[in-house]
Sequence to fold (201 residues):
Amino acid sequence: MRNRSEALIAIDVQNDFCPGGALAVPDGDGIVPSVNSLMADFATVVLTQDWHPANHSCFASRHKGSRPFETAEMSYGRQVLWPDHCIEGTHGAAFHDGLETARADLVIRKGRNPDIDSYSAFFENDRSTPTGLEGYLRTRGIDTLAFVGLATDFCVCHSAVDAARLGFTVNVTLNLCRAIDLDGSLAAARKCMAAAGVEVR
Ligand code: VGL
Ligand code: ZN
Fold:
């Protein structure tokens, strides 16, 4: 029986996060068949899409003398500088071809503000500007969220932790996620999720 109070949220299963993409996550595409199968267990399926304007301030290319994967101090705190990725409307920003997007009830795009990155599906990286996803879920009576997707240690982790902070019951299925793992970021993400009360399985 599909429980109407539960939603599956698949984070950023996009070409740029898959092998060959601009910010490829090792084996990112390996999760696609299992994510598709899992959709059948949920009454509500939400897909997120990292969807940046070409001049986004999280791109190392916008910071003179900086290289991808270095960090920079932003108005909202320290931020990793990324290779240009998921630029709105490009092939890299499109969902992986194998993902069953037709099944989605909602597609939410994030990272639209050129001045603030947005790892989380709920809040931009200032941790306070909402995307509107919380309202969508609450008005539909959804209180339990299952997260899968890319990347474990950035967008999945931030989304899951924010969801828990907002009072949702949250789980993350690690074998349906893949990580970037930058300087121990995967271990840090696991700790952060556990501390926030996210069930990591
Ligand atoms: C992501 C880095 C930059 C992600 C998005 O989806 O985890 N990571 N933008
Ligand atoms: Zn991004």
Notes: The chain has a mean pLDDT of 97. DSSP finds four helices and eight strands in the chain. The two ends are 21 Å apart (CA to CA). Residues 50, 52, 58, 82, 85-86, 111 surround zinc ion (ligand 2) (CB under 6 Å).
